[in-house]
Amino acid sequence: MKKQEVYEYLNRRGIRYEITEHEAIFDMKAAAFIDQPYPEADAKNLFLRDDKKQNYYLLTVKGDKKVNLKEFQKNNCLRHLSFAPETDLMDILGLIPGAVTPLGILNDRERKVHVFLDRALFAAPGLIGVHPNDNTATVWMRTEDLKGLIEEHGNPISITAF
């Protein structure tokens, strides 16, 4: 799904959302310069795979957090993790670097990516800001709605503290 298809998908499911259009941003440093209506709801996404190149993970955390991968692996009983290559990102989620988003799960036909959502994103106001499979916009929605979309799509999902 491309950006417009994501909007149509959200509309068909009756999910309320707001859109902030902006220049393409490729990392959290650039996101800091975008005028955002809900900066406390900004999310950072990491697309990872294990050392056997068999299991894929998408970590979605509050934008201001740092993720300790070794601690994450240990806490979740996972093999050694590293960033998945760009080719895997495109083949599995249909995304380019800088546009990684949990909405990319909608392109995961094999439902092979396990999503980990930061528990902190569910705290008040319960909003999350993610790209609509394109890094020239941010979609603001209820975190619960995003969780429901991922569950409905069939990807494994875990809510965890980072």
UniProtKB/TrEMBL annotation:
Domain of life: Bacteria
GO MF annotations in UniProt: aminoacyl-tRNA deacylase activity
A Pfam family the protein falls into: tRNA_edit
Coiled coil: none
Record-linked SUPFAM superfamilies: YbaK/ProRS associated domain
Classification via Gene3D superfamilies: YbaK/aminoacyl-tRNA synthetase-associated domain (3.90.960.10)
Domain YbaK/aminoacyl-tRNA synthetase-associated: 22-147
InterPro entries, per the entry: ProX/PRXD1, YbaK/aa-tRNA-synt-asso_dom_sf, YbaK/aa-tRNA-synth-assoc-dom
Family, similarity comment: Belongs to the PRORSD1 family.
Name the record gives this protein: Prolyl-tRNA synthetase associated domain-containing protein
Organism: Candidatus Limivivens merdigallinarum
Classification of source organism: Bacteria, Bacillati, Bacillota, Clostridia, Lachnospirales
